[in-house]
Automatic annotation (TrEMBL), chain A:
Predominant localisation class: membrane
Location of region: Disordered: 464-487
Subcellular location: Endomembrane system; Membrane
Domain NADH-Ubiquinone oxidoreductase (complex I) chain 5 N-terminal intervals: 81-128
Topology in the lipid bilayer: Multi-pass membrane protein
Transmembrane segments: 6-25, 37-56, 95-115, 127-144, 150-169, 181-200, 220-240, 261-283, 289-310, 317-335, 341-363, 384-406, 426-445, 620-644, 747-765
Source organism of the structure: Chlorobium ferrooxidans DSM 13031
Stated name of the protein: Proton-translocating NADH-quinone oxidoreductase, chain L
Class in the EC hierarchy, top level: oxidoreductase
InterPro entries tied to this protein: NADHpl_OxRdtase_5_subgr, ND/Mrp_TM, NU5C-like, Proton_antipo_N
Domain NADH:quinone oxidoreductase/Mrp antiporter transmembrane: 144-417
Pfam hit, one: Proton_antipo_M
Automatic annotation (TrEMBL), chain B:
Protein name: Proton-translocating NADH-quinone oxidoreductase, chain M
Organism: Chlorobium ferrooxidans DSM 13031
This protein's record includes keyword Nuclease: no
Organism superkingdom: Bacteria
Alphabetically ordered keywords of this record: Membrane, Oxidoreductase, Transmembrane, Transmembrane helix
Residue stretches making up the NADH:quinone oxidoreductase/Mrp antiporter transmembrane domain: 144-447
PANTHER family cross-referenced by the UniProt entry: NADH-UBIQUINONE OXIDOREDUCTASE CHAIN 4 (PTHR43507:SF1)
Compartments where located: Endomembrane system; Membrane
InterPro entries named in the record: NADH_Q_OxRdtase_chainM/4, NADH_UbQ_OxRdtase, ND/Mrp_TM
GO molecular function per UniProt: NADH dehydrogenase (ubiquinone) activity; NADH dehydrogenase activity; ubiquinone binding
Family stated for the protein in its record: Belongs to the complex I subunit 4 family.
Principal location listed in the UniProt entry: membrane
Automatic annotation (TrEMBL), chain C:
InterPro entries the record matches: NADH_UbQ_OxRdtase_chain4L/K (IPR001133), NUOK/Mnh_C1-like (IPR039428)
CC annotations in GO: NADH dehydrogenase complex; plasma membrane
Enzyme Commission identifier(s): 7.1.1.-
Assembly behavior: NDH-1 is composed of 14 different subunits. Subunits NuoA, H, J, K, L, M, N constitute the membrane sector of the complex.
Lineage: Bacteria, Pseudomonadati, Chlorobiota, Chlorobiia, Chlorobiales
Alphabetized GO MF terms: NADH dehydrogenase (quinone) (non-electrogenic) activity; quinone binding
Entry annotated with the keyword Nucleotide-binding: no
Keywords for the protein's UniProt record, in alphabetical order: Cell membrane, Membrane, NAD, Quinone, Translocase, Transmembrane, Transmembrane helix, Transport, Ubiquinone
Transmembrane annotation, as ranges: 12-28, 34-54, 66-89
Organism for this UniProt entry: Chlorobium ferrooxidans DSM 13031
UniProt name for this protein: NADH-quinone oxidoreductase subunit K
UniProtKB/TrEMBL annotation, chain D:
The protein's name: NADH-quinone oxidoreductase subunit N
Any matching Pfam family: Proton_antipo_M
Gene: nuoN
Enzymatic class: translocase
Catalytic activity: a quinone + NADH + 5 H(+)(in) = a quinol + NAD(+) + 4 H(+)(out)
Length: 769, 546, 105, 511
């Protein structure tokens, strides 16, 4: 077994150990055993840092990949298949190494931070236990080498997120949020599971490598539509976890959890798992699937950004910005800017974690005030927080010299390139949305910075109502139960909360990733994480350029989004043209080893996109810079110089304002349709069950039910019903027949004779005829 | 060995018969000892079982001894029918992969049932006699390899169940009891006719006589009586027989639309009986299908896989929806059983190894998990004397241990990875999706995953999270240093789980988790039998794998 | 006269059939238990006539024997019947069978 | 016109009679016993003591010895074809004697007699005479013998039914029984006369020979058969000849009810089978008989009607004895299923079913009697909570009822199993009858379970929880019967082999 594998197993199991220890013994340990959590995560981080060092820094090999697996379930010699095992395994490649380091680092920082933030909570110990199991399952996702185990850890992540969102379960809002999150994720998981099933039903294996090998060998027996469907369905898992439209609704509510949890799970790692998963399955995604992904990403990015601009809760702004940024990543993958998307994943993880922890610090300092309208002027009180927060904000907004700039720019460049290659008008929608969202991002982050840190404190403006307006208000600790803004002065947070901020902020600067502040592609990350070779393009090239007519019906059959159809139809010819050109581009790229890791692409289309993206690099820089400046400028115009009064504007464009404030009414829509729908349906069915089904079986239902409760003669109906499905027949026959027993002996005699002579006449007639 | 494990409870019952009914503790202990004895035997069987031997059909030379294990075969009845030769009925026990797991499950659940019967105060003597009778009957059904013997045990279950529900049940128990009795009897009387018909249609290759041996019946070439009612060419009657048997077993499962006895029975039955009912009895239906219904009429099974699958899907989704609407916690759990047994049906309908394996493993897991669920329902019912979900709220603040176990059980029941329920459901889907016949059905039934999560999480939230409901079934008081305490009206015992309850629950929880992490201890015993069963069920499946 | 001289089997059978019907009629219509029993006697005698006639016309003794036994048993039956009827009269103060119907349904 | 037999002939006749008496010992013995009991009664001046009953018991037990002797005898006719000796008859001889014994036992247990009558007088004598009569019914090979034995049974039954002279219900039952019985036996005689007219024979075998030889006028034959069927149907209490039975069973003293419901029903079946198998043409019949008469259809109608009517109407009964009466009608239907098969397996099944019915029905009535002693009532309502106060009786009764339903592991289940096996073995046409059989048996479950339901699931109104103890002997007997019911439900080989052994009439087994 490769030494790195052993290490990674240790890394994987350490957090589990922390979970087990803390869940059982936290009450018996000093400080509720938080040091165990932190210590263990420290070790885990050290180990993964070592892995990172060996794999990435020390001896980088583009094709580096070590895997190990063991038979988990042995199905024996299955008829028609032969010996069949379900294996569990671990794979380490460059991406894994980076993710390992990132996850453990952020998790460690959050652990550290929590020691300050959660201090005094009555379930303090359990909190760290939950963090432990979360880290465990997240690392599981990162390390898995097959779909089945990824699905397992996927759900486990969902569970830990469920537990942590509902950590303050006394709050109904928290309870609602955790349920919502779990269910939304389950919906996504269904899709993912079906996707897995499609692949399994073909190859009888879950392992990535085997699946891809089979695909590359063209062993996929079903139509390509099924393959596309598989891709889209697997992507649904990402839609759920990474809070993409239409399942994004849970993430903002998830802010009910403690703020460090929001930083760890709902900003940096778990939500990124979706993107990571799409990257893992990137090579088997057909162009059709990729188109769907790209559009969903773009739309999500835009929608979330528009919502974010009007939110007042500091964490909600960040939540929606997270959704929006995840949209970027998904968009990036969709357009084929693989490296860029993953790059953004990493950078975003750091600065968004920084932002959340910062907001946590603010909330902490403000005694659990989360509404930005009642903040202001904090920069004097909390300089550290201010500095780090601002730096991260700049990164998020994507100003040059920040990491966010590099990655976001790369994605947008890829989007432009993609649009160029596909050449369809509608595909330009994607970069356009991208850039527009960039502007919005800049705007709402500027707004946030200003509202929180500048101006004068507005705490006194807050309408003094006992339970804090909107119920999303605050984490109610036992210790920090009540809060009086007036008395306590706002002060900077303690070192164990400050240190993480600084580290994360430092990680949001460009030089960590790339020598050239303007080009991420020159950075080590994008060099080292090149776009992998697709297995579907190579195996059956017709997928890329399938005549529209033949694909559409099948696509419709598997229910892909409508725009892809039209899109596919539109671009099909264009691709025919593009393919050869792309081929030689790719060749060229390969020859004078340009910044694509000297990778030759088996799929011309992919090569073309990457190349075009590279070409569109500077365009992207210009446009995005302009957009960002516009955004920040607008923010200044509104909040600094007060030229435009936000309140008046809000009134002026009230419908739009409300539309954004109410998050495009998605919650209401879902409430009205799916949730109401299923509840009503369930009521209906259970009525049906108790009355109709039971009724049919028991004979006349109402009778049965009525008699069921009258202890007296009810059961005779039951029996009749049960015995021959119509309560009536037996029972009434009984009632009628027994009347024959008149008690008068002569009637008996008469009936005797009637019977005898009845027979006789019957036979008589039969003899006559 | 099998005879011992079967009849141990009845022996205990006879001993109890001799104990004066005032000696409640002795009675309890006797039956507990019997249950423990069963457990030990089950463990020995588990240890001694050789997973490589497939079972299902007769081994080399047409005798069961080659393929089944722990076989006990004695000539029991041998009566002269003149021209029709002699009617031979054997006392014929044996286990293979699909029954040995059920034997272990039965031993486990009935032991737990005894523990949870500890609180029964009314007519303890009669209760435990009937209980032991029931235990014997259940165990017998799983190890009987002679149709006649199987039928005897099968019917023997009805009466004790009737009284256990009818005497120790809830307010509406008469209704539930007679309903259960008539339903199941209605299902099984037709089975009797089919059994006789099979007897006249099958000969034992070894003796050449007609036989009731299920092992002989499982081989189609033994249907060699010319002109017999179920002879291979007699398609019409074979179809009818299949349907009759299927309905007979489906009523036990219970399969929509024959399921309505289940909620009533569960709601009225005392906790231990619910545990037995859900934990073991329901499995008898699907076990019967795997042991009798399908192997005897494989070609009909092939033709009807689709229908069975559809019924499975209906069970899954319909059950989930009904559960979603329930206010009574126990009723919700009952409907969840219906939903979960739907997975079993679906897996069986797939007709391939993955599906069958999933189905059988699901039977085992559902046994343990549902047992846990009903025990937990019983715990809260003992304290609050109500099961209305809305009468609680915020319990996990006050009963942390209870809440923890509930969380495990609930999540196991909604198929969370790492807990045993997940693996079986996953395999059911894998199988159902892999077989072309049931693929569309599988796609639909996947919805069950979501709705399953929905009703479970919703009930969890309403009962354990949030704050105490204003009309809750318990009082809340805040002591000096601001700690909140609750107490239930007229409940003297420990507020949180007490020792006895933990003894019942913890093993189940441990099993659930252990089998979720590493299922091979159970699955390892099944695979060869399952693969054999799939072969018996026919080559048609194999060609249709993609 | 020669008609009478040649009384054939049919005549006997006709008579017996008529007797049977009369008996049944009595049994069905009469309310008085005694009369009903007389009706029964008629039925039995109808059978007797048959036996005797057949025995005469196919020349075997069994018929005669049979009718002898029937007569005897009829007498015995009458005895038991009367005993029961008297008992009934003691209790119900009536022998109207249609009024004696406490056992029914 | 008839020439008298010559002296030589008379000599030979006497010789034959002397020879044949050797085959007649059990009957003679019983007749002696009959008189002996009357004498004992005279001696003891009808004083209430157990002398009578004990004598009867021992006497009947003794008769078993003589019956056992007859196994050695060859099958055949005696007394010029009047009487038959064969295994079939033997089976019923045992059956009736034992049932007589049990009837006596139940009588001894029944305390109602103390209340109702001063002297047991001729009661036991009549029981013995009934035994004799039924034995003769089972072994009669001649219409005359049939008639005589049936009347003997009926007369004794009338008197026994009305034995509680001062009891309205008893007397009413007697009257009804009498009238109905008289009419139907009258019709039967008329039918006999017609048969005699057609064949000039009264011996069953000769009749069948004559019918086969000369053929017959179908119309007359049908009329005859129907009239005879009326007579038999009244004995076996099958719909539509059953009307007397509920009233009589309810009114008669419980031991007599049990006795009638088991023994005289069995006697009826014995006759029915012998008559239809022997007398009427039966050579490997297709369903539609060569001579245009569809006996099987006739019996099918009777049997279906009985099963459905009996079970369905029983649902409404509130009096346990009456409920059992209807159930006995239903069981007549099940028995007819076996009869109408007219083959070896069918006969075997019928005989076996009779045995099982014997056990469970007597058991049920015995327990009912004991309960009636304690509660003084046979109403379902008064059974509330009895299970707790009379544990053994409750358990026993439950077992008997389960057996009546036909659930394993009881003998009743095996009985049904045999009947249905016979049906299915015969061919798919009869499966539908089997279907009706099982369906109706599901219905029967419901009303049978009403009794345990009241005994166990409901509590009596009056709170007093004092437990009734029916006494040691009673308990032992009940447990004995219960254990037998269960034992033969699990190990029924001997019984069924005996039934098979006995299913040979005149030494011939049907095929």
């Amino acid at each position: 077994m490769h030494s790195l594998i052993q290490l990674s197993i240790v890394v994987l199991l350490l957090p589990l150990l922390s979970f087990v220890t803390l869940i059982f013994f936290n009450r018996r340990l000093p400080r509720r055993g938080d040091f165990i959590g932190v210590g263990i995560l420290g070790t885990a981080f050290a180990l993964s840092a070592y892995i990172f060092w060996t794999v990435i820094v020390q001896s980088y090999d583009p094709a580096f990949r070590v895997a190990w697996d063991f038979t988990w379930i042995d199905l024996g010699n299955v008829p028609g298949v032969g010996p069949l095992q379900v294996k569990m395994g671990i794979v380490i490649d460059n991406l894994t190494a980076i993710m390992l380091a990132m996850v453990t680092l952020i998790s460690l920082l959050v652990h550290l931070y929590s020691t300050g933030y959660m201090a005094g909570d009555k379930n303090y110990g359990r909190y760290f236990a939950y963090l432990g199991i979360f880290t465990f399952s997240m690392l599981g996702i990162v390390l898995s080498d097959n779909l089945f185990s990824i699905y397992i850890f996927w759900e486990l992540v969902g569970l830990s997120s469920y537990l942590l969102i509902g950590f303050f379960f006394e709050k109904d809002s928290a309870a609602d949020a955790q349920k919502k999150a779990f269910l939304a994720n389950r919906v996504g998981d269904i899709g993912m599971w079906l996707g897995i099933l499609i692949l399994y039903s073909q190859f009888h294996t879950f392992s990535f490598s085997e699946v891809y090998a089979n695909l590359a060998a063209g062993k996929f027996a079903l139509s390509n539509a099924w393959l596309t469907a598989a891709g889209i369905l697997l992507f649904m898992g990402c839609v759920g976890k990474s809070a993409q439209f239409p399942l994004h609704i849970w993430l903002p509510d998830a802010m009910e959890g403690p703020t460090p949890v929001s930083a760890l799970i709902h900003a940096a790692t778990m939500v990124a798992a979706g993107v990571y998963f799409v990257a893992r399955i990137f090579v088997m995604l057909t162009p059709d699937a990729l188109h769907v992904i790209a559009f969903i990403g773009a739309f999500t990015a835009f929608m979330a950004a528009t919502i974010a601009i009007t939110q007042n809760d500091i964490k909600r702004v960040l939540a929606y910005s997270t959704v929006s940024q995840l949209g970027y990543m998904v968009l990036g993958l969709g357009v084929g800017a693989y490296s860029a998307a993953l790059f953004h994943l990493v950078t975003h993880a750091f600065f968004k974690a920084c932002l959340f922890l910062g907001s946590g610090a603010i909330i902490h300092a403000m005694h659990h005030e989360q509404d930005m309208r009642w903040m202001g002027g904090l920069r004097k009180h909390m300089p550290w927080t201010f500095a780090t927060f601002t730096l991260a904000t700049l990164a998020l907004a994507g100003l040059p010299l920040t990491s966010g700039f590099l990655s976001k720019d790369a994605i947008l460049a890829g989007a432009i390139g993609f649009a160029n290659v596909e050449g369809g008008g509608i595909y330009y929608l994607i970069p356009v949305l991208g850039f527009f969202s960039a502007m919005l991002t800049a705007f709402y982050m500027g707004r946030q910075i200003w509202l929180v840190f500048f101006g004068e404190s507005r705490t006194h403006l807050k309408p003094a109502d006992p339970h804090h307006g909107d119920h999303h208000a605050h984490d109610s600790h036992a210790a920090h139960g009540d809060d009086h803004h007036a008395e306590h002065g706002v002060h900077e947070v303690s070192w164990n909360m400050r240190a993480p901020l600084v580290i994360l902020a430092a990680l949001s600067v460009f030089f960590v990733y790339s020598p050239d502040p303007l080009d991420g592609a020159k950075g080590w990350f994008m060099k080292m994480i090149p776009t992998p070779a697709t297995v579907v393009g190579a195996a059956n090239p017709q997928i890329g350029s399938l005549p529209a007519g033949s694909v559409l019906p099948q696509l419709a059959a598997v229910g892909a989004l409508p725009e892809t159809h039209t899109a596919e139809g539109a671009v099909a010819p264009a691709e025919h043209g593009a393919a050869p050109a792309a081929a030689e581009h790719g060749a060229a790229a390969a020859s004078h080893g340009e910044a694509k890791g000297g990778h030759a692409y088996s799929d011309p289309r992919q090569a073309e996109i990457v190349h075009a993206g590279h070409a569109a690099h500077y365009t992207a820089i210009y446009i995005s810079s302009v957009m960002v400046v516009l955004g920040i400028g607008l923010a200044f115009v509104v909040y600094v110089f007060g030229i435009i009064d936000p309140a008046k504007t809000a009134v002026a464009i009230r419908p739009l304002y409300l539309f954004s404030l109410n998050k495009w009414y998605w919650d209401e829509i879902y409430q009205a349709t799916f949730i109401k729908g299923s509840v009503v349906l369930s009521k209906l069915l259970s009525w049906f069950d108790t009355n109709v089904v039971d009724g049919i079986v028991n004979g006349v239902a109402t009778l049965v039910r009525k008699f069921a409760f009258a202890n007296a003669g009810f059961d005779k109906y039951v029996v009749d019903g049960l015995v021959n499905f119509t309560a009536f027949s037996v029972n009434t026959t009984g009632a009628v027949l027994r009347k024959l027993q008149t008690g008068k002996v002569q009637t008996y005699v008469v009936m005797l004779l009637v019977a005898v002579f009845g027979y006789f006449i019957y036979y008589f007639t039969r003899l006559i005829y | 060995m099998l005879s011992l494990i079967v009849f141990l409870p009845i022996i205990a019952g006879l001993i109890i018969l001799a104990v004066p009914s005032s000696q409640k503790q002795i009675i309890r202990i006797v039956s507990l000892l019997a249950a423990i004895g069963q457990g030990v035997l089950a463990f020995l069987i588990w240890r001694g079982y050789d997973p490589s031997i497939p079972g299902i059909t007769a081994g080399p030379g047409g005798s069961a001894f080659g393929s089944f294990q722990f076989v006990e075969k004695l000539s029991w009845i041998n009566i002269n029918l003149g021209a029709l030769g002699s009617m031979n009925i054997d006392y014929f026990l044996g286990v293979d992969g699909i029954s040995v797991t059920m034997v272990i499950l039965t031993a486990l659940v009935s032991a737990i049932g005894v523990l949870s019967s500890w609180t029964i105060q009314k007519q303890v003597k009669g209760y435990f006699i009937l209980y032991n009778l029931l235990a014997t009957a259940m165990m017998g059904c799983f190890v009987a390899l002679d149709f006649f013997l199987f039928y005897v045990f099968w019917e023997l279950m009805l009466l004790p169940m009737y009284f256990l529900i009818g005497i120790w049940g809830g307010p509406n128990r008469e209704y539930a009891a007679i309903k259960f009795f008539l339903y199941t009897l209605f299902g099984s009387v037709f089975m009797l006719l089919v059994m006789i018909g099979l007897y006249f249609s099958v000969t034992d290759p070894v003796t050449g006589n007609h036989t009731f041996s299920l092992v002989a019946m499982a081989t189609q070439s033994n249907f060699n009586v010319a002109g017999a009612i179920f002879a291979p060419e007699n398609h019409g009657w074979r179809l009818i027989a299949f349907i009759v048997l299927f309905i007979g077993f489906a009523i036990k499962v219970p399969m929509f639309p024959f399921h309505t006895w289940l909620p009533d029975a569960h709601v009225e039955a005392p906790t231990p009986i619910s545990v037995i009912l859900a934990g073991v009895l329901l499995k008898l239906g699907t076990y019967g299908m795997m042991r009798i219904n399908f192997p005897l009429f494989p070609e009909v099974f092939q033709a009807s896989m689709y229908v069975i699958g559809i019924f499975g899907a209906i069970n899954i989704i319909y059950g989930a929806f009904c559960a979603l609407a329930q206010q009574d916690l126990k009723k919700m759990v009952a409907y969840s059983s219906i939903s979960h047994m739907g997975y079993v049906l679906l897996g069986l309908a797939a007709g391939n190894s993955e599906g069958m394996l999933g189905a059988l493993y699901q039977m085992f897991n559902h046994g343990t998990i549902t047992a846990m669920l009903f025990l937990l329902v019983g715990v809260i019912y003992d304290r609050a004397h109500t099961r209305q979900i809305d009468k609680f709220g915020g319990l996990s603040s006050y009963m942390p241990r209870y809440a923890a176990v509930v969380t495990i059980a609930w999540f196991a029941s909604l198929g969370l990875p790492g807990l045993s329920g997940f693996i079986s459901e996953a395999f059911v889907f894998v199988g159902a999706f892999s077989s072309v016949t049931t693929r569309p059905i599988a796609i639909v039934s996947v919805l069950g995953i979501v709705f399953g999560a929905a009703y479970l999480l919703w009930s969890l939230q309403r009962m354990f999270l949030g704050k105490r409901k204003p009309d809750a079934a318990y009082d809340l008081e805040v002591d000096a240093e601001g700690h909140e305490h609750i107490h239930f009206h007229d409940w003297k015992g420990k507020l949180d789980l007490d020792a006895r309850e933990l003894v019942m629950l913890v093993p189940l929880a441990v099993i659930t988790i252990a089998l979720g992490i590493y299922p091979m201890p159970v699955i390892g015993m099944l695979t060869s039998s399952i693969n054999k069963l799939v072969q018996v069920l026919s080559p048609v499946v194999l060609t249709s794998l993609n | 006269m020669e008609q009478l001289a040649t009384i054939g089997l049919n005549h006997y059978l006709t008579i017996s059939a008529i007797l049977l019907c009369l008996g049944l009629f009595a049994v069905m219509t009469r309310k008085n238990a005694i009369v009903i029993l007389m009706g029964v006697e008629l039925i039995l005698n109808a059978a007797n006539i048959n036996f005797l006639a057949f025995s005469k016309y196919n020349g075997s003794m069994q018929g005669v024997m049979f009718s002898l036994f029937v007569i005897v048993l009829a007498a015995a039956e009458a005895a038991i019947a009367l005993a029961i009827v008297i008992n009934i009269f003691k209790i119900f103060k009536s022998v109207d069978v249609s009024s004696i119907d406490s056992l029914k349904e | 016109m008839f020439e008298l037999p010559s002296g030589a002939e008379i000599q030979s006749i006497i010789a034959v009679l002397k020879a044949n008496t050797g085959f007649f010992i059990p009957e003679i013995y019983l007749s002696v016993l009959f008189m002996a009991v009357i004498l004992v009664d005279l001696v003891t001046k009808g004083r209430k003591n157990n002398v009578l009953s004990i004598t009867t018991l021992l006497g009947l037990l003794g008769s078993i010895y003589f019956i056992f002797q007859q196994h050695a005898l060859p099958s055949g006719e005696i007394f010029f074809g009047m009487y038959v000796i064969d295994r079939y008859a033997l089976f019923f001889k045992y059956f009736f004697v034992v049932s007589g014994i049990i009837a006596v036992i139940i009588t001894m247990a029944d305390e109602q007699f103390n209340r109702e009558v001063k002297s047991m007088g001729e009661y036991y004598a009549l029981i013995i005479s009934m035994v004799i009569g039924m034995i003769m019914m089972a072994s009669s090979g001649d219409l005359l013998m049939i008639f005589l034995s049936m009347e003997l049974v009926s007369f004794s039954a009338y008197i026994l039914t009305g034995y509680f002279k001062r009891n309205r219900r008893s007397s009413e039952a007697a009257l009804k029984y009498l009238v109905y019985g008289a009419v139907s036996s009258g019709l039967m005689i008329y039918g006999f006369s017609l048969i005699y007219g057609l064949t000039a024979q009264t011996n069953l075998i000769k009749i069948s020979a004559a019918l086969a030889a000369h053929g017959y006028d179908p119309l007359i034959m049908i009329l005859a058969t129907l009239l005879i069927l009326a007579g038999f149907g009244y004995k076996i209490g099958a719909v539509p000849f059953h009307f007397w039975s509920p009233d009589v069973y309810e009114g008669a003293p419980t031991p007599i009810t049990a006795y009638l419901s088991v023994a005289s029903k069995a006697a009826g079946f014995a006759l029915l089978m012998r008559f239809f198998y022997i007398a009427v043409p039966r050579a490997a019949l297709p369903v539609e008989d060569v001579m245009g008469i569809d006996w099987v259809a006739l019996l099918i109608v009777l049997s279906i009607a009985s099963m459905v009517y009996g079970n369905v109407v029983a649902l409404w009964q509130k009096n346990v004895k009456r409920l059992l009466a209807y159930s006995s009608i239903a069981h007549a239907g099940y028995l007819l299923l076996g009869v109408l098969l007219r083959d070896a397996l069918g006969t075997q099944a019928t005989l076996f079913y009779l045995t099982s019915y014997f056990l469970m029905n007597f058991g049920a009535f015995y327990v009912v009697t004991l309960i009636a002693n304690k509660t003084g009532s046979e109403n379902l309502e008064d059974y509330r909570g009895l299970g707790r106060r009379m544990p053994i009786a409750g358990a026993a009764l439950t077992v008997f009822l389960i057996s009546l339903v036909g659930l394993p592991p009881t003998i009743g289940f095996i009985g049904k199993l045999m009947i249905f096996s016979a049906l299915l073995a015969k061919g798919s046409l009869y499966i539908w009858l089997a279907l009706i059989g099982v369906l109706t048996s599901v219905i029967s479950l419901y009303y049978y379970m009403l009794i345990p339901l009241n005994m166990y699931l409901r509590d009596s109104e009056q709170p007093e929880e004092k437990s009734f103890n029916p006494g040691l002997i009673a308990n032992i007997l009940m447990s004995f019967l219960m254990i037998l019911t269960l034992w033969f439900g699990l190990f029924f080989t001997p019984l069924s082999d005996f039934a098979r052994y006995s299913s040979a009439m005149f030494g011939i087994t049907l095929q």
